[in-house]
From TrEMBL:
Keyword Ubl conjugation assigned: no
Pfam families (alphabetical): HTH_35
Record protein name field: Helix-turn-helix domain-containing protein
Domain spans labelled Ner winged helix-turn-helix DNA-binding: 15-81
Annotated keywords: DNA-binding, Transcription, Transcription regulation
Organism of derivation: Undibacterium rivi
Length: 101
């Protein structure tokens, strides 16, 4: 009988839960609708940042709470700020190619 393998917990911070974001806004005296209207956006525009990446709305929410957007959505910003490291290599060699400058 096999034993189930323990899953590794990621050490990377996770995005805040949407209820935590709304609660933090309410503690500061804001609602998502009020933030949208104050920012001259449609009534439900800022709420879209809870469902999908929306940098402008993320900045509005973060400013109202008083933290950086990267703190609320670290996973989103890790993906946005990801820079791949590419190495050039020859298909027949294990040595990386060097570029002449």
């Amino acid at each position: 009988m096999s034993t189930p393998q323990a899953t590794k917990k990621s050490t990377l911070p996770t995005d805040w839960h949407r209820a935590d974001i709304v609660a933090a806004l309410h503690k500061k005296g804001w609602s998502l609708r009020a933030l949208s209207l104050q920012s001259n956006l449609g009534a439900s525009t800022v709420k879209e940042a809870l469902n999908r990446p929306y940098p402008k709305a993320e900045r509005i929410i973060a400013a109202a709470i008083g933290v950086a957007p990267e703190e609320i959505w670290p996973e989103r910003y890790a993906k946005r700020n990801f820079t791949p490291v590419l190495t050039l290599s020859s298909p027949n060699s294990s040595q990386p190619l060097q570029c002449a400058a």
